[in-house]
Design brief:
It is built from four helices and 18 strands. GO terms for molecular function: metal ion binding.
Amino acid sequence: MGLLLLGRARITAVDQEGRNFIANVGPGDLWYFPAGIPHSIQGLEHCEFLLVFDDGNFSEFSTLTISDWLAHTPKDVLSANFGVPENAFHSLPSEQVYIYQGNVPGSVASEDIQSPYGKVPLTFKYELLNQTPIQTPGGSVRIVDSSNFPISKNIAAALVQIEPGAMRELHWHPNSDEWQYYLTGQGRMTVFIGNGIARTFDYRAGDVGYVPSNAGHYIQNTGTETLWFLEMFKSDRYADVSLHQWMVLTLKN
């Protein structure tokens, strides 16, 4: 899953049925490409984005790329595969090109390619900031999972806003570990894993946090500006349990 932090970009993808997808993304937009789906991300201006994978052992630098693959394929094979002369491939890079300079593309309408198999049935893009947030006295939260972004079957997320002096209540997540990325501000989190074991951590923009599944925790805004952070889960659904709600709804006896 990707989250655009700054600027604008264009994303494209083609699924296993030959159906394609082309869209522009702006700040706060998410995209999700299922494993094995070929795709591209092109800047329309200076842009920065965060990529999150559902496998902690995966490296973005070990992914399959066109430049790397073609550089390690004989030119006579490329010629036979694409039906063009070998000299068409003489200017190919000799190794993987991870990020390279190209031309800024025109509008989607002017450059759209109509696949004979049509468009992908489920969009790969989700405009998170256009979602009406769940408002609380101390902040807000926007939640995205397969219930409102159907293609996202392996990752759920929440964009959390906490105002100065406020806190995300004591809670835990029953269905997945939690991975956090702090976008702005300063925060403090204590994680309790049972058996008398707890630890407190301080965070600021650019830091990463982690909470094991079913570990109780809270997040305080310890700074003077709004704290924004992203919660990510390896699950098709977002789920949390509130300590306050549990206690209120349990018999007093």
